[in-house]
From TrEMBL, chains A, B:
It comes from freshwater metagenome. GO terms for molecular function: catalytic activity. The keyword Disulfide bond does not apply. Keywords: Pyridoxal phosphate. Pfam families: Aminotran_4. Its cofactor is pyridoxal 5'-phosphate. The keyword RNA-binding does not apply. InterPro entries: Aminotrans_IV, Aminotransferase-like, BCAT-like_C, BCAT-like_N, Class-IV_PLP-Dep_Aminotrnsfr. GO terms for biological process: amino acid biosynthetic process; carboxylic acid biosynthetic process. SUPFAM superfamilies: D-aminoacid aminotransferase-like PLP-dependent enzymes (SSF56752). Coiled coil: none annotated. The lineage of its organism: unclassified sequences, metagenomes, ecological metagenomes. This is Unannotated protein.
């Protein structure tokens, strides 16, 4: 019966995502972590996320550089070199065939031997996966802008406890903030520190236009690659940028607010604590930076093509 | 050849530990967590650990009660009832055959569907495992006491960021503290809060005898079951107990310090920041509480037998 010369197109098992675990590429649905990995049972790890847009990686080497700096700060020695990890990241995307992807790399402290409790003795483990691009604010909502809430009962974990420049999964404060936002009919929380200064939200940095200056917090935040890109773009556009302490009160007199993340880009904010920011539509500065951000994704100085063959 | 009436003793595949994952009991070495579980990639979970000593569970129902309270505080609905989870915990121990075990139960927020970002929509996941009993301070070192260091560059994550009474894996501060301790030739860190008050260390509560009163911190700590047991024992023994704020300076004038944890019990401290505590040997109060703690493990009011058949 089935004896045609026509080749049969098999579905790609990696179409929903591709992971690299213990030296093997596996479909994302089958990718897993040993339950005793201290990345899970101690959240002892660091990670990074790069994106692929229209078949091109965006600033991959900048992500890798930050990732390796983070490993060093945690005294975590990745089991492979930067070049090897880079190849694996590209390969997960290539195998998945995804033209728009969210590509995560994780190094954990690893699995203790029986009775071991000294993290210096564990063998660090590497995990990589590519899944379809993730939007913190979906594109249809970005046209209007999202609804943001400044948490009142939750402070960002301070730097003297956990270094926010080392990307980590200590999201307890963020998750608590998300529930606080939901309870106020908002979608996205921004967390202040204990001194009432703006920090960041779950997976993003914050920018605010106040008195024609574009502010973003200097301390207590991840030094985001999208944040860096937005600052570069703003300076190129002749916008005055101030990276400094940003009191929460300043947010309330902003004419524009936007959020930046690899997972969603430059995302306009429509309302803050239920009240419109500016006229409630994405402002001119936000729009210009956002447009330019996406243009850079095809610029060879910022991005490179994935070989899908 | 092999045709004897003698039954062949097969090795127990669960001897190194037994886990319950997705409704199945599996050897610990094969137990794993989906890589996209937000318990791993957000540390969005709570957990508890009970112990088995000489074939008896210790205060299992107290652990379960605390665990369910923690789930509620995180708005995390366990996928099974308390009675069902209890049975699974007992069964992992029974299958492992372990007479001394460390039994962990975890509920995570679960795996988001494709593109999902709202944690209210995920299906929480349950994990249970029993492994050989874990010692934060090994018994041979307990005879002498361990070496403790009060961290100078690391504060415990404050309650306004992450609730310490909900047992969590936000161990970034603890791990940083452990490396700080290693750098000072100590084994175990104690973390102060931002106001110079004693909190806790990686997996344990802290007690100190100062002016004949037994102090333990009231705030910014897990309400440990071993802590509760030690307080009950001390009161029974007629020792004055104060659960309150404990300034770090008070540790330096303690005549005895001990640590409490399900993973190791009541653990004497020999040195603090390199100097002997008291005369440098486990003190009389520590020893009395420690002895009574282990006696209670055979008391039917505190423990119950595991059926290994």
């Amino acid at each position: 019966m089935a004896n045609s010369a026509q080749p049969i197109a098999l579905p790609n098992p990696f179409a929903a995502g591709c992971a690299w675990i213990d030296g093997k590429y596996v479909p994302i649905g089958e990718a897993s972590v040993p339950i005793l990995d201290t990345g899970f049972v101690r959240s002892d790890l660091t990670y990074d996320v790069a994106s692929v847009w229209e078949g091109r990686f965006f600033r991959l080497d900048d992500h890798l550089e930050r990732f390796f700096t983070g490993c060093e700060r945690l005294r975590l020695i990745p089991p492979l070199t930067k070049a090897e990890i880079r190849s694996i990241m590209v390969e997960t995307v290539s195998r998945s065939g995804l033209r728009e992807a969210y590509v995560e790399v994780i190094v954990t402290r690893g699995v203790p031997g029986p009775g071991q409790r000294d993290p210096r003795l564990y063998q660090p483990r590497l995990y990589v996966y590519a899944i379809p691009y993730v939007w913190i604010v979906k594109p249809e909502l970005q046209a209007r802008g999202t609804d943001v809430f400044v948490t009142q009962n939750t402070h960002r974990i301070p730097s003297s406890s956990v270094d926010p420049t080392v990307k980590n999964f200590h999201w307890g404060d963020f998750i608590r903030g998300m529930f606080e936002a939901y309870d106020r009919d908002a979608w996205v929380p921004i967390l202040p520190d204990q001194n009432g200064m703006v920090t960041e939200g779950p997976g993003f940095n914050v920018f605010a236009m106040v008195d024609d200056v574009l502010y973003t917090p200097v301390r207590g935040v991840l030094e985001g690659i999208t944040r860096r890109t937005a600052i570069e773009i703003a300076k190129d556009l002749g916008i005055k940028v101030a990276v400094g302490e940003v009191p929460v009160e300043d947010l309330y007199r902003s004419t524009e607010i936007f959020l930046t993340s690899t997972a969603g880009g430059v995302m306009p904010v429509a309302t803050l604590d239920g009240k419109p920011v500016g006229n409630g539509n994405p402002g001119p500065v936000t729009t210009k930076i956002r447009d330019r951000y996406w243009e850079l994704h095809s610029d060879p100085n910022y991005s490179h093509e994935v070989d899908y063959t």
